[in-house]
Fold this protein.
Amino acid sequence: MKTILFTLAMMLVMYENECWSQNESKTPETCIYIPKNLSVRCDDYNKDFTLDVSVIPPCTIHKMEVFTRWGTPVFTTTTAPWSWYGGRESAGVYNVVLTYSKGQNPATEGKTMETLQQSVNLIK
């Protein structure tokens, strides 16, 4: 199951003839879904840590880093595919840090770089 946070905006308008109109819009708060668990057992479920990048709103990932709970880097990439196989690491909690910008264009000129951080549980 995937959980995505949304910002919900509602607009209520009253027209001259006293009729009401209502409009809702949902906007994802982030364009990237980071899984919370990674299993490197032989069951073929969640065996690779792979990012799910949404096209609405579009995103461009520039860097993905994985750290131990003490801050030691264990994986870094600046190219796709945005996945990590944690088979050589010990079971436990790891921190994933992503640097990304909103938009499809890989050029970062004029774009605000954003950082997303989340812990991931590595299960063996």
